[in-house]
Amino acid sequence: MSRLLRLAGALAFLLILAGCFTERQNEGHRLYDANCSNCHGESGEGLRQLIPPLAGSDYLKVNRAALACLLRKGANGPMTVNGKLYQQVMPGNATLTDAEITNLLNYVQTSWGNSNEVFTIREVTEQLTGCGGSIVR
Amino acid sequence: MNLTSLRRTLGAFAFVLAGFAGLTSCADKAETADLPEQLPFVGEREIRPRADGGPADTVIATIPDFRLRNQDGQVITNATFGGKVYITDFFFATCPSICPKMQSELLRVYEKFKGDERVHFLSHTIDPAHDSIPVLRDYAQRLGIQNAARWHFATASHDSIFSLARAYMTAAQKDSTVAGGFAHSGAFALIDSQRRIRGVYDGMNPLEVERLMQELPVLLAEEKARAGK
């Protein structure tokens, strides 16, 4: 009986542990779905000539140093992605923490065939400090 | 582990299994749900007493007269959609929240029915101050709609648009607290050739948009029967 209990205990512990990791791992994905996917699409495909794609986007490589502030401050005006000119307004997000922005960016940088260099939190905080938008909790 | 606890465990298992079975059967039912023979009439009913004192007539609300201008600068009215069915929504070109998703869902419907001359599309801007005719034309072309032959992107005065939104059962209002400055629902309304609303669908929900694509042929069959009379 006690062996059974111990086994059950170990199993529960593992499940809880896995739960923590999974949630953390999926944070970027969840934040993307909640904040970005309405416009950029569930698979980063964008929308025709209206909203630029994130999947296979050269912008993510060329403007790597400006991405954290782009998420924080948004954009308004012409933007060229993969040689095409886009004119939409992109709203910024004033409340995500630096860690959340890091997870979100890394999800984008490594999803849908993207294999761009990922960010560390420190790097994102540095970028965000540059535009007065660092939020550390 | 004694016999009682074993029995209890098994009992719990059976309960969980039964639960799953219940879920599965529900899902099956939803998938194979039969289409209605006739689409319902959505919206207000008006009871009109008859002058001769006989039983009152129940009148179904219809879309009021409208006069809009589309992305090609043409005037469009109810007559533009005479003998056709059309699907409406409300959007604005700089909308950063739900519009791109909504318009990409409406594009799916458009792509599916673009071979059918009887089906038209009408997107109203709720930001006429910004969305001039050239802005609407640019927006339409960026979506891949080259002209207004089948899909109109239309504008009118602020007041007419907002009262039309109410008529099409779409909530739309100015709201400085939301991104973009306007709060609105992503509803698609399906209108028959007699100006009546025959379905309202949540354009943000792909399953609802599927339902629209399944129900549209039901309405087209009804229209065909009416035309044949």
Question: How does this model look, in words?
Answer:
With 137 residues, chain A is mainly α. Chain A has one domain (28-130): Cytochrome c-like domain (Cytochrome Bc1 Complex, Chain D, domain 2), CATH 1.10.760.10. Helices cover 52% and strands 7% of the residues of chain A. Chain A has helices at residues 2-25, 27-35, 37-40, 59-62, 67-73, 98-110, 121-130; strands at 75-76, 79-81, 84-86, 89-90. In chain A, strand 2 and strand 3 (84-86) form a beta hairpin. Chain B is α+β, with helices and mostly antiparallel strands and 229 residues long. Chain B has a single domain (66-228), classed as Glutaredoxin (3-Layer(aba) Sandwich), CATH 3.40.30. Chain B is built from 5 helices and 11 strands; from the N terminus they run H-E-E-E-E-E-H-E-H-E-H-E-E-E-E-H. Chain B has helices spanning 3-31, 99-113, 133-143, 158-167, 206-228, and strands spanning 45-48, 57-60, 67-69, 75-77, 85-91, 119-125, 151-154, 172-174, 182-184, 187-191, 197-202. In chain B, strand 5 (85-91), helix 2 and strand 6 (119-125) form a beta-alpha-beta unit. Chain B is globular, with a radius of gyration of 23 Å. The N and C termini of chain B lie far apart (77 Å). The model of chain B is unreliable at 21-32 (pLDDT under 50). At the A-B interface, helix 3 and strand 4 of A face helix 2 and helix 3 of B.
Q: What is the third-level CATH name, the topology of chain A? A: Cytochrome Bc1 Complex, Chain D, domain 2
Structural class of chain B: alpha+beta
Helix percent of chain B reads 25-40%
Helix percentage of chain A? 40-55%
DSSP helical segment count of chain B? 5
Kindly summarize this structure in a few lines.
The complex is a heterodimer of chains A (137) and B (229). Chain A has 7 helices and 4 strands, in the order H-H-H-H-H-E-E-E-E-H-H.
Question: What is the secondary structure topology, with strand pairs?
Answer:
The complex is a heterodimer of chains A (137) and B (229).
Chain A: H1 2-25, H2 27-35, H3 37-40, H4 59-62, H5 67-73, E1 75-76, E2 79-81, E3 84-86, E4 89-90, H6 98-110, H7 121-130
Antiparallel strand pairs in A: 1-4, 2-3
Helix pairs in contact in A: 2-6, 5-7, 6-7
Chain B: H1 3-31, E1 45-48, E2 57-60, E3 67-69, E4 75-77, E5 85-91, H2 99-113, E6 119-125, H3 133-143, E7 151-154, H4 158-167, E8 172-174, E9 182-184, E10 187-191, E11 197-202, H5 206-228
Parallel strand pairs in B: 5-6, 6-7
Antiparallel strand pairs in B: 1-2, 3-4, 5-10, 8-9, 10-11
